[in-house]
Write the structure tokens for this entry.
Amino acid sequence: MKNSTKIIVITVLACIVIFTALKLLSNKKEVTDRVYHPDINTKAVVQADTVKGAAFKIAIPFLGSFSPSREVTIASETSGKVITVGIKEGSIVQAGSLVAHLDDGILRAQLSSAMASLENNQNTLKRYEAAPTGVTKLQMDNARTQVITSQAQIEQLNRQIKQYTITAPFAGVITTRNFELGAIVSPGNPMATLIDISTLKLEVSVPEKYIPEFRNGVEMDVKTDVYPDAVFKGVVSYVSSNADASHNYTVKFLVSNNEKTPLRSGMYGSVMLGTSPLQNAISIPRSALIGSSQKPQVYVAEDGTARLRNIEIGASNDTRIQVAKGLNINDIVITGGLVNLADGTKVEIK
């Protein structure tokens, strides 16, 4: 009886295992059937380029990010209540533009009183100076002192009143505003941030072998992915004297902004360092390259068939890549329609 039970259990388990294996094989076949496999016997329409030897211009990029040429946090020099707001975030301001005006009513009342006192003291001094007799030297000195004291008080009040009007120190863009109408501000508390992006700074890190090419005042091409067709002019404004742990040096450029292709702080930019062109170099369009940087490959058209070929790459620029090994002059490299290709696919070049 026990043996019969064991046989039944083993049989059931075997059936389950067989059923599971068959199900897995079926699922695998179904997934495989759904995966696209190019038909090498169906002609694929491709674009191609014939390999030639020519001068190959190398441009070495150094990546960095743009920052404002000037940036300042605007703060009040005194305490007071905001009665006028002159800016908002994103405002374009000129030097001297109103940022905020604080309540200066009490000071202006004191100024009016001081000006009245000055007028009275000046009149007293004039009478003393016009009197032929009866005015002592002490009275004359006191009158002159009262006039000087009133003038100093007025000058001090004018300086204090000026602090209640907060203005932009230079032209630029307001990026933050930290106050509202009616707010009470204190001396030194940040009220707004002003940046100048009419000229931007671009900071890059340069390996020591290239640093002799960077000197103060040298002009170089600057590019950004935001405007791929635009070329900006950057002027070297600073070259660090000390290298970092990787033997790289900090180089800063000043780049003029413009309205047609406006740059913004925080955008990425790159400085293009051109070197002497390689003569009779073999190069291919970037679009022809497949595989990885460790194992670069291209498709070559041979007798109407695409053949996958391993290559070794060298220098590169914006549009082309130098091929150091793996291609020969007059080889036909496929540059477009690669998605439908496999090694051995029939091709028709257009």
